[in-house]
Amino acid sequence: MQISPALLALLDKTGEIEVLVLGDVMLDRFVYGSATRISPEAPIPILTISHQAQMLGGAGNVVRNITSLGGRARLVSVIGEDAEGREITAILTAPELASGAGTAPNLITSVGRPTTVKTRFIADGQQLLRSDAEASHMLQPQTAEKLLDAYKQALETADIVILSDYAKGVLSDPVLRAAITLAAAKNIPVIADPKSLDFSRYAGVTLLTPNAREMAAASGMPCATNAEVETAARHTLKAAGLDALLVTRSEAGMSLITPTEAYHITAKAQEVFDVSGAGDSVIAALALSFAAGATLPEAAQLANLAGSIAVAKSGTAAVTREELGAALHSAEISGIENKIISFEAAEERVSNWRARGLKVGFTNGCFDLVHPGHISLLSQARGECDRLIVGLNTDDSIRRLKGETRPVTNENSRAIVLASLGDVDLVVPFAEDTPIHLIEGLRPDVLVKGADYTVETVVGADIVQAYGGRVHLATLKEGFSTTGTIQRLLGTRETREKAASNKTAEKP
Question: Which runs of E-coded beta strand occur in 81-200?
């Protein structure tokens, strides 16, 4: 399937959409550190903890993705009367989620039922262990009644419903059936992410989104190829009373199957780091775009792009509208534009790299005309690190530094040339005269400049060295400079123009 230009226009409409999310909210904790010793008590590694992070998981991560994609979310779920439940409430009501488009939580507290918490222990970028604290039994009748009351109220302003089922007890058979029936009565579409292998429980939803493993288990049929997925899905559609299935197939992409049509969407190549929560990114993009007016095939294309972005992130992922817009542009133009990103996006990318133990390098410049000297410097810089970021002066910045006749090539062209080089992993434009802001925020392990500088004169050297980084002065390739090249070009042009003028004057 080809990416439709109309999807960019649809993406702009997501701010008008309110998504009602009903399902299992949880707290995702990540404990990071290193493991260099084996315990004397048992043949297990000892994790030396460096830092911890926690964020919304399950239905909560669906909400995070909806708001980061620019939509409004209303979460209806159940928490325990405990510290973890209060932490979820605090996150959901924090300004970054609650303000603007944001989210409105409707959390029902269940006494005696713990809040679901998943804790992942990660050593040097490798997950060692996950521990789950949870209860998965059905809600008490009075809790279920309060939940459905909150759901009915939220339906009044909803454009679409997501049923986020993680089999933690919120979406019991009575709650699930009531939720689907109530939405149908108001002609509100419903998208469900199943956990149960009895897909008939979700009969009446607009779209069900199992992964390939769930599809194979529910149908009892193989799902390795496009043809096998089609056969299994059509059998299940009829048996379970469903209208459409979107089967997510990891590196094989996605397959959208209806009783009469099949669309197979190729996965977008990305550096896969962490698949945690990628399905939540998929269903959030799917719901927002469908409610904004996309067809199911178009919505599936956007969801596929969102999933490819999510798996390249660290931890439980949230995809932004800017990232999805950039992915749409790059799908239409060229993959190299994925390298040209804002400072904020670069911060997140660097965080992902660091979580994997990768060393980050940084260099900067105008790169007005890229010549062999630049290529040599970038090659040497890449040799000092695992990932290389290039800070690029914007056009206005260069004019201030070098005069109104510069740059001779515009900012977009210079960024594309740099991003096309294999040694460059990211290009981050900056409008200031110096890259101090980038260096302070990205905190590179290695700062690289040419040997025409000294360590003392490299901008940001004191900052990098203060936190334990280092400065590398790359050997210069003699005979190349941008200013000299431009002057030679101008001199050659003037010589040609003078010669042409003389010839004209010699004519009778």
Answer: 103-110, 117-123, 126-133, 160-164, 190-193
**Cα(312)–Cα(290) distance, rounded to whole angstroms?**
24
Mapped onto helix, strand or coil, the DSSP state of residue 347 is helix
The structure's pTM equals: 0.65
211 forms beta bridges with: 248
- The DSSP code for 47 is E
**Higher confidence at residue 488 or residue 458?**
458
The DSSP secondary structure of 114-129, one letter per residue, reads PPPEEEEEEETTEEEE
Q: What is the pLDDT of residue 273?
A: 46
Tell whether the torsion through CA atoms of 4, 5, 9 and 15 is positive or negative.
positive
Annotated catalytic, 280? Answer: yes
Enter the tokens of residue 365.
């410049």
Mean pLDDT, rounded, for 456-483: 85
What share of the chain in percent tops pLDDT 90?
A: 57
- ∠ CA 145-150-152, nearest 5°, is 95
Nearest to 296 by CA among 250, 318, 331, 263: 263
For residue 283, give both structure tokens: 């269903």
DSSP SS3 for 233: helix
Confidence check: pLDDT of 228 > 70:
yes
Q: In sequence order, which residues have a C-beta less than 8 Å from that of residue 172 and are 6 or more positions away?
A: 138, 139, 144
Is residue 265 within 8 A of residue 247, CB to CB? The reply is no
289 contact partners, CB below 8 Å, separation of at least 6: 7, 10, 11, 14, 298, 299, 302, 303
3-state class (DSSP) for residue 250: helix
pLDDT at 336: 62
b/e 111-126 (16+ beta carbons within 10 angstroms → b): eebebbbbbbbbbebe
3-state SS, one letter per residue, for 474-488 = ECCCCCCCHHHHHHH
pLDDT digits (tens, 9 = 90+) for 411-446: 888 998 998 888 899 999 999 999 999 999 999 999
In DSSP terms, which residues pair with 105 in a beta bridge? 75
Which pLDDT belongs to residue 47? 94
The gap from C-alpha 346 to its chain's centroid, in whole angstroms, comes to 12
Catalytic residue among 193, 280, 395, 445: 280
Check residue 340 and report its DSSP letter: B
**CB neighbour list of residue 286: distance below 8 Å, 6 or more residues apart:** 191, 207, 209, 246, 299, 300, 302, 303
d(CA 182, CA 198): 21
* DSSP, res 333: S
Helix runs in 321-361, H state only: 321-332, 343-355
**DSSP category for residue 3:** P
Instruction: In whole angstroms, give the CA distance from residue 319 to residue 270.
Output: 14
